[in-house]
Amino acid sequence: MQKILPSTYLKTSFFIAAFLLINYGLSAQDLKFKRTVSDTTSHMLSMDANYNRPSFQIGNTGVAIGGYFEANSIYAVEDGITDGLSFQSPRMSLLLSGSISKRIKFLSEIEFEEGGKEIAIEYAAIDIAFDPLVNLRAGIIVNPIGSFNQNHDGPKYEFVERPNEAVDLLPGTFSNVGFGFYGKTYKGNWIFGYEAYLSNGFDTSIIDNESDRTSLPESKENPNRFTENFSGQPLVTTKLAIGNKKLGEVGLSYMGGQYNKLEDDGFELDTKARRVDVVAFDFNTVINLTGTAIMGEAAYVWVDVPDTYTQQFGNRQWGWFMDIVQPIVKRKILEWEDATFNFAARLDYVDFNEGKFTQTGGEIGDHMFAITPAISFRPTAQTVLRLNYRYQCQTDILKNPSVQTATWFFGISSYF
Predict the structure, then answer these.
(1) How far, CA to CA in Å, does 61 sit from each of 24, 39, 100?
(2) I need a labelling partner for 102 at 20 to 30 A (CA). Which of 15, 162, 258, 287 fits?
């Protein structure tokens, strides 16, 4: 995400107002808002998540505005110690899009984190459609590794926290400046989609950081990736997805490139080009007989770590998560026609350092496992109230007795 200093909040607001009022020359007639709901047709894939959001269409201008908001409470106990009850407002995302002309669209997402402590441009790109199978995308893009990275909106999930595999192993909502192509084609109940992008990428912070472990998410803290590519070599991100109206969707994605510099101002920094490569598999389906929704994602990471680093920095990592959501009651409640109560469960696992110690042959630790049962109430599909209980076991690199954490979450998330 491209971060914006909090002091620029007024400038951001001015930009939004200018986008709406000046660029489109709105009249009083144009300022009428029309609600548009997300598309629920069978020809949708995870790659369509950016456009598959409810929004307000502003008159006949082609401009649409929307977003979502999250507010939570948290009570955690770690090995019998607690800091008590806290309340959070982790994020509010503002979605702004415009149809520039036939076959040309602009879409952006601005995220306000932790009550406005940080403001970030998470997505801002122009799409030019040449053919359903060939579309150009350029700007600040979300790299499509796995499914959750693109399809991450809070109101879509029964869980307050995002999965560890998607945000601690992979750099969740990882966006970079770049360009590429995407497209879809259909045959009967089947749909095929692809994405392929070149963008700026990772830097040496993935092995030189305060976490003292190999960590891809550390690169998100480098704002310079939106103005220059650290390694000088493009990051390649590709994804193939196949969907079926009756069976669901599966996706296979790859992201990789050089993350280090060989020299700087004539000084040698490293003796070889070092790569980071990621492969991810994702799936989602609904069992029609029971209405049970199942989705998951798994990823494997390879990092070329210099031999001078200790084995605390792993060169192989992997992880997965799986969500199961079962509707229990669906009927009219008060004025809500399709209010739904759900029971859900999430399983999380991440191994941050796969392998064995070279000196002893013993297994390296540094992994975590968590299970999160949940109860949720959806007055509408766009709003969810959720109660979660998360139990997590975290093991250090030496496989000492695990740190056990139990956490209660209660929160609300809604599109607006």
Answers:
(1) 7, 20, 9
(2) 15
**Is 352 within 8 Å of 213 (Cβ atoms)?**
yes
Residue 41's CB: how many other CB atoms inside 10 A?
Answer: 7
Furthest-apart CA pair in the chain: how many Å? Answer: 75
Q: CA 325, 327, 331 angle in degrees (round to 5)?
A: 155
Percent of the chain residues topping a pLDDT of 90: 77
For the chain, the C-alpha Rg in angstroms (whole number) is 22
- Give me the domains of the chain, ranges plus CATH numbers: 2-415 (2.40.160.10)
Q: What pLDDT was estimated at residue 117? A: 80
Amino acid letter, residue 60: N
Stated pTM of the model: 0.88
Could you tell me the two tokens for 226? 């939106």
Q: pLDDT tens for residues 191-231?
A: 999 999 999 999 999 999 998 999 999 999 888 899 999 99
Give yes or no for a contact between 162 and 148, defined as CB atoms under 8 angstroms apart: yes
